[in-house]
Amino acid sequence: MVGRKLLAAAVCVIIAGAALAQTGQLEVSDAWARATPAKAETGIAYLTIRSPTADRLVSVSSPVAKKVELNTMEMSGVVMKMRPLASLDIPAGQPVTLKPGGDHVMLTGLNGPLRDGQSFPLTLTFEKAGTREVTVAVEKPGAAGPAPQR
Amino acid sequence: MPRFALVAAFLGGLAILGASLFLSLEHRYTPRGAAGTLLASAIGGPFRLVDQDGKTVTDADLKGKWSLIYFGYTHCPDACPTALNDISIALDELGPKRAEVRPVFITVDPERDTSQVLKSYVTAFDAPILALTGTPEEIAQAAKGYRVYYAKHPEADGDYSMDHSSVIYVMDPQGRFTASFTHESTPEEIAERLKKLLA
Question: What CATH superfamily is the domain B31-198?
């Protein structure tokens, strides 16, 4: 009996979740970071944002570092430049993926190394959708993308 | 004679354009890369730096092996780990030839990147990397030889990032510039090119 109730509850949650996704909530997924050397002061995190309506990411924060900010990497010829971004536009219905070689979440003044296999929380604040907290999975130091579900 | 001057200027311009095009393309298609061409002597040069163990390393010490030289800095979490990881993956593709190639990371941020910092940084990567630092003057000299641009970019809170050329240089065992890769090169492309060069 209890098992069946639990199952029913689980089904409800799944349906509710699916409905929520369809009715259009902003979602943050595939959040990952690169592992850092023992005494590294800077780290980096990437993720994907999907929103059914246009929105704007205005701030990021995390307890793992003293300073957390949106950055972009620009190339002018072969010269790499990192610059802070005041905000990041999220167009309606179009996923925005932060990935190596482009926009990213920069973690400066790490409180400790980010170790491969660990995870940490990251809070994103959007102009309209409010805040979202995601769990960032730490991958290898030079990883190029999020690992498949562990 | 303005007409003559115009024609002469045009032809001169064309010659310069042709020469630079030839120089930039030539080394991509020859099996030996840029070795033996004008480019080989235009990139590279003498340097005297210290490695992650505090040991002095000069350009002469790099001879005898192929070198993959990348200028970067450890507070760079995006482009630099990507380049070092691309090198790691490419080297894994080389099989037994792997031992003939030495990845070299030269910091453009000697102020923060001491030998100790470099040691902790490079040991995080799979490939054994020779990491070099020095005084600001020594770094400037090395970067000049490799035509590497770098500049401190101050941030509002007193922190800084470094703008820098993100290029992987391939130097042959005689220390001659042979090929280069950019952020657009995939590890597969790097591996393919190295296999041809080392064959």
Answer: Glutaredoxin (3.40.30.10)
- Bridge partners of A32, per DSSP, are A46, A137
- The shares of helix, strand and coil residues in chain B, as percent rounded to the nearest 5, are 45, 25, 35
CA distance B57 to chain A (A): 23
Q: Domains (ranges, CATH) in chain A?
A: 25-139 (2.60.40.1890)
Rounded to whole angstroms, how far apart are CA atoms A48 and B49?
41
Do A79 and B79 count as a contact with CB atoms less than 8 A apart? no
Q: What angle do CA B76, A148, A39 make, to 5 degrees?
A: 30
The overall pTM is greater than 0.90: no
Rounded Cα distance between A83 and B9, Å, is 41
Q: Rounded CA gap, B100 and B94, in Å?
A: 9
Instruction: Look up residue B74 and give its two tokens.
Output: 């450890």
Cβ burial A32-64 (10 Å sphere, 16+ → b, else e):
bbbbbbeebbbbbbbbbbbbeeebebeebbbeb
ipTM of predicted complex: 0.75
Please judge whether B165 and A140 are an interchain contact, meaning their C-beta atoms are less than 8 angstroms apart.
no
Tens-digit pLDDT profile for residues B36-83 = 666 667 899 999 999 999 999 999 999 999 999 999 999 998 999 989
Cβ neighbours of B82 in A, within 8 Å: 100-101, 142, 144
